[in-house]
Amino acid sequence: MLLRSLIASLCATVCVSFSCPVSAEETATLIFEDDFQRNESQEQTDEVGNGWKTNSKARAGGNKQVDLRDGAMYIYIHETADHGVSVVQPAEFRDGRVEVKFMLEDDRDSLGLNFADLKFKEVWAGHLCRVDIGTKAVAITDLKTGVMDLKIRTQRKAGTLPAEQQKMLKTKTKRVANKLETGKWYHAVATIVGDTLSVSIDGKEIASFSSPGIAHPTKRMLRLAVKRNVVVDDLKIYSLGGGKS
To answer: In the record, which residues are listed under signal peptide (predicted)?
Structure first.
């Protein structure tokens, strides 16, 4: 017992003397959380509260696309919408982690976690990187140096993107097969450290992808991006490695 204590003390002394590195995960700072345990005052328009904003007024004629009920947030695209639903929360960090419970109610449903910086004007709408979780796969995409780069986006829309650039874009997404059941709650964690974005579901790592755009120094907001429907709950956002960027 005495020998074990001496060894432990020696190891601690060595770590202090040589400034043993502390991982980003060990310095996680909670910067936002929401359990959605509240009610709206009306049912005609979005009234999410807690700092959330949506694109329903601009893209769905003001029709309601986000509903708080049963202690969760139900997101569903309105039939008049001309764009997927975007539910936005300001959250600034360099390295960070998002934790969220979610449920997909249909095989075609998916949850997108989109990290953005509206102050960065070299990409469309601040898009930096994104995670898409569906019933069949998980995809991680570098948008900053991929399809949302303004020059690339303009050329794609004009049909003038060179073949080598088209080939390059295929390297900006990593897709990993992963089956999920509908009507079942899952816990997802998306972690950004440096140029690497990794995704785990229910404690199991599903995908990890490294690409330059992921290392953008200022992620300023999280967008929950929904093309059809999704239910989310217990969302938390952490800054890793010493707080905000």
So the answer is: 1-24
